[in-house]
Amino acid sequence: MVGSAALNKNPSRRPILWAEDDEAIREVLQVVLARKGFNVSFAENGIKALLLYNEARLKGEPFALVVLDIAMPDLAGHEVAARIRQGERERAAGERVALIYCTAYDASPNRFQAQDNEAIGFLTKPIDFETLPTTLGAALAE
After folding, report:
1. pTM (2 decimals)?
2. Which of 39, 56, 89, 123 has its C-alpha lying 20 to 30 A from 32's C-alpha?
3. Contact criterion met (CB below 8 Å) for 76 and 50
4. For 135, which DSSP code?
5. Long-range contacts of residues 130-133, Cβ cutoff 8 Å, at least 24 apart
6. Given a cut of 60, is residue 115 above it in pLDDT?
């Protein structure tokens, strides 16, 4: 098991939660990110993402980054982000997870909701797997 000091020196090992309802995309992401050394847990919908997020937080192993597909059938990414931020405000413990939205749609209309939930960025589909490690590494290093 990697200690927390080692995790801080290697941002790619900090835990990521990725919510994506498309199984094929999840499978490709899992292979690509594992090869690059990223520590990623996947959720197939927004409800599962919230469950995994809260379980990790309660175990004292919170995610450093949450990537949310905007358009999911049960609970949209914006809604998941809003619930995460609401929980952070209620706990008032100073914790803030980094949020990135992922969308196949034009990101422009979603920027207002992203600002409300203090997302640090957008990924667009199709995902550029060449630049993805750099994008995630930068988000984890913040």
Report:
1. 0.86
2. 56
3. no
4. H
5. 132/32, 132/33, 133/12, 133/33, 133/36, 133/38
6. no
Residue 124 to residue 107: CA distance in whole angstroms: 8
pLDDT at 5: 37
Name the more confident of 88 and 6.
88
The architecture of the domain spanning 14-128 is 3-Layer(aba) Sandwich (3.40)
Count of residues in the chain: 142
Give the DSSP H/E element, type plus range, for residue 46: helix 46-58
Residue 41 contacts residue 30 (beta carbons within 8 Å): no
Query: Which amino acid, one-letter code, is at 62?
Result: P
Return all residues near 40 (Cβ < 8 A) that are at least 6 apart: 15, 16, 17, 18, 29, 30, 33, 34
Q: Which helix (H) or strand (E) holds 28?
A: helix 23-35
Q: Which one is predicted more confidently, 23 or 116? A: 23
Number of other residues whose CB lies within 10 A of the CB of residue 130: 8
pLDDT exceeds cutoff 50 at 7: no
